[in-house]
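Students often ask why we bother predicting the structure of a whole assembly rather than each chain alone. The short answer is interfaces. A chain on its own may look different once its partners are present, and contacts between molecules only exist in the joint model. In this exercise we take two input lines together and write out one structure for the complete complex. Read the inputs first and try to guess which parts will touch.
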Amino acid sequence: MTPRITFAVATRVLTQLRRDHRTLAMLLLLPCLLISLLWWMYEASDPAIFDRIGPALLAIFPVIVMFLVTSVTTLRERASGTLERLLSMPMGKLDFLVGYAIAFGLVAALQSVLAVSTSVGLLGLDVLGPVWLLTVVAVADAVLGTALGLFVSAFAQTEFQAVQFMPALLIPQLLLCGLFVPRSELPTFLEKVSDVLPLSYAVDAMQHLTTSASTADVWQDVAIVAGFALAGLALGAATLRRRTA
Amino acid sequence: MMKNAVEVRDLVVVRGGHEVLRNLDISIGGGVTGLLGPSGCGKSTLMRSLVGVQQLRAGTVTAFGLEAGSRPLRDRIGYVTQAASVYDDLTVAENLTFFARVLGVGRAEADASLEAVDLGQQREQVVGRLSGGQRSRVSLAVALLRKPDLLVLDEPTVGLDPVLRRDLWALFHRLADEGAAVFVSSHVMDEADRCDRLLLMRDGRIIADGSPSEIRQKTGADDIESAFLAIVEEDVA
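Now the answer. The structure tokens for the assembled complex follow.
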């Protein structure tokens, strides 16, 4: 890995995003709008539900959004020949992967600052732990989404297929992450399954943060999410072949 | 004078269950070497093998004595794929800046590259809005960034204006005169005479190798297209 090249990739990805106003608006504003919608839904009937589900959503947005954006953009690099060209240059695979992770991690930080400000400042979400830690968790979640997206892009031949990986890989995690039924109340088998899914820890981290002032549990969850993200990047590097058939 | 830049020995490449390159033996030296043949004959696969992004079934490919694709070689080879491998959503200048950073060269080289392909005027334009010919010139500019010792160009002149085509060939010769080995593919036979040496390829094999005049003489044909036909017919008979 060469820092110069890693940062060149990150800067380039950010420049591309800056030129794409629509994607940028979707990345930054959509989470704020959706979380406001959730607040509005429960505002009259039972505001406590917003306090329960809101934090989970703050964890889920960065994973889903970064997964989609990364799998499609990486696939575009594979299809357009730019990846092949980069791999014929003195670029390490990790330069490519980490460059992407840094760029989308930064976007996620911005996204979460906006979503957290909206939730806490405007919609009155109760957070017992330190608010800044919400952003740290969101960045870890985004890097997880990026890593998973990089990994699956190796198994898709078209952008159409890449998008289909979202329901295949993320919806089961969404169902089992504790958003619908607390994980401890799931049937034993499903609880065990949810124990090995990364999104469970992403959501746990946010929930620990909002319900307790102690941060030890949160850091443990963040560490697990980061572990999954690193494993995803390693798998991504393994699927990134310099020589192809 | 440089000894052979590229040595290909007993190269076999299989793609999709089909033998695309069959026991190929090639040496490429200095000057401008043209690889001519119909589309689908294996030109791009051979070029991918030279830059080390193609999986090989058998055989060896070396450049300057090093295995194709090995780390120290990646600084020394400029490669232009058939599709313009640049970012459509960035401007010409942003593309060049990015690849220059990857290669560790400065702004001056980026500007010189753009001038060489005559895109100085378009530097602030987004690549996606350029014409096909302009896009492939951006791609070529990227390959020129680092004054490569070996330049591998996969059909770089397709669809270009004749004036520009002439200028680019002049550029290839200038680079060759400065010491680079230039390896250019084309499926347009009328570009043959612009090369110092020609390799005619068909169905994964090299069917003729020599200077354009040698090939014409050997077959008694007036132009390379007729020579190509004569060789193929002789082959079948």
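Check your guess against this: The beta strands of chain B are 6-15, 18-28, 31-36, 58-63, 66-67, 77-80, 150-154, 181-186, 197-202, 205-210.
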